[in-house]
Amino acid sequence: MAIRVLLVDDQPLLRTGFRMILEAEQDIAVVGEAGDGLQALDQVRALQPDVVLMDIRMPRMDGVEATRQITGPGRDGPAKVLVLTTFDLDEYVVEALKAGASGFLLKDAPANELVQAIRVVAAGEAMLAPSITRRLLDKYSAHLPSGDEPVPDTLHTLTEREVEVLKLVARGLSNAEIAADLFVSETTVKTHVGHVLTKLGLRDRVQAAVYAYESGLVRPGAQ
């Protein structure tokens, strides 16, 4: 079955461009469009998309609040949110990730990256590009704890190896890269990541990365 996509952006020309790119793919179907967050909520309820391609800065309701309402607690719909951001990174992207977005994509990304991002998010994975994620979190380090705050109790539920894995996830490493770093198999890494997400009550790797920074486990700028 085709991946059902809802396009949310206040610029009609951008929506048209995204639609042309996505509709050229046999496994993707654009089921609707919205020009702001309020329209997006209505369209999500009516159309039940698999992936919402969400702009941040829009009138009436921005992409952060719309993401929160689409993916927040108590929501059992299938929609995953992929946030669109400008090249210089919108100041609200961290909030969108905390609100439940499954990743983010630069607006000027090549067409093949847009298509791949849609497929990755639809499959239940997080769109976590290492270089961009690190740059994003470092850029907004002023909004994150300094590392001197008490460690959350939930972090103590992790084993020593799970903490190691969480740190590497926060750096944006893939399962293969983590496996190579820890000298274990990718299957073992997947198991550890799954345990981390379950124990911490997190949706995906993106939220795990944000958690690692917010908890002080990883400090912005640290290697």
UniProtKB/TrEMBL annotation:
Residues 151-216 form the HTH luxR-type domain. The modification 4-aspartylphosphate is found at residue 55. Keywords: DNA-binding, Phosphoprotein, Transcription, Transcription regulation. Residues 4-122 form the Response regulatory domain. PROSITE patterns: HTH_LUXR_1 (PS00622), HTH_LUXR_2 (PS50043), RESPONSE_REGULATORY (PS50110). The keyword DNA damage does not apply. It comes from the Bacteria. Gene3D superfamilies: 3.40.50.2300. The keyword Iron-sulfur does not apply. It holds the Pfam family GerE. PANTHER family: TRANSCRIPTIONAL REGULATORY PROTEIN NARL-RELATED (PTHR43214:SF24), TWO-COMPONENT RESPONSE REGULATOR (PTHR43214). This is Response regulator transcription factor. The lineage of its organism: Bacteria, Bacillati, Actinomycetota, Actinomycetes, Kitasatosporales.
